[in-house]
Prior knowledge:
This protein is mainly α.
Amino acid sequence: MQIFTLVFLATLFVVTTTRIGLALRQIRSVQANRSKVPAAFAEQINLETHQKAADYTSAKAWLDIVHTFIAIIILLVFTLFWGINALHRLWFDLLGNGIFQGVAVIASVAIISMIVEIPLDLYRIFKIETEFGFNKMTRRTFLLDIGKQVALGIALGAPLLLSVLWLITISGQSWWIYVWVTWAVFNILILAIFPKYIAPIFNKFSPMQDLVLRARVEQLLKKCGFRSSGVFVMDGSKRSNHGNAYFTGFGANKRIVFFDTLLSRLNHEQIEAILAHELGHFKLHHVLKRIAWTFAMSLAFLWGLDYLIAQPWFYSGLGVEYQSAAIALLLFFMVMPTFTFLLQPLLALYSRAHEFAADKYAVQHASGTDLAQALVTLYKDNATTLTPDPWYSAFYDSHPPASVRIARLQGAG
């Protein structure tokens, strides 16, 4: 067995053990605290709601454990158990050797992986989400969403993939720079067109009809110096009872979006506070910082791929007997999550810092008390656990734990 094979298997074992261990810690934490509402929330959240959040969190964590095992099986079948070799031979016989054959191999892996994971999605939506009162999706909508996702993948992903493989083929040693520029331009284009052309494929977006609330929103936007192409309400209730709000888009296509489920649960002051938080992300350039961070990381990854693409041990160590740009690209992005897993806590920490900063901005432009009350309502309605395991939270949570976040807001007033 090759050294890289041993390194890969050892890293996979460590990452898998860590993932499962963290999930089990999360389950133990929420179940150990299930019998009592934390004192800070006792007046706002009753015991039944608290226990529902604990059971909902546990159910999702158990499903994550199952998903972890299935993901390992998929990865090993495609690599060390010759799945990619079989697909390569199949498409070589049909298309010969070239860019289109490479696209076909990558697309086959993506489609097979998606099909294998559909039962997990069905269980999550129609078992867990339904049992806890969140699912509003029909099986017809579920199937339509899959069809739309596949169609978008073909329409947008296939041309990008063809372009990347073509650039690798013709650009010599500098291919990774040209690919990075192409990928960056593609992502900026998607950000620009997403609100107007992609998001409406899945949901209906209507201008806000509540004139009083709309006036408050527009006043806050003016106060914060935020220009957008409109304030919209999304039919989130079409699929789920979960509530949310966000702004999306790039340049002149920026939009403020509220889920209809969110508007039905909060008063005007609380909605204004939630919007102030979202505007904080924009005014503090969090979106641009995350885009810049993503672009920088992608450039580093492509530089690394430039080295690996010419190394026979990279292919053979993962059980693949063929060497090509498409195979290298496929293998790299299949194993990268395993080798970069330990970066997850740093990314989560960075995201939580942005959330704290956006909360601070919101308190300066709206009421901290209203924001805290809105968040408690969302925690309650979305069955968010109030007692996460600290290690699990540090690894995964993009938002601060409820107790810490609410305490800061209450201190700020």
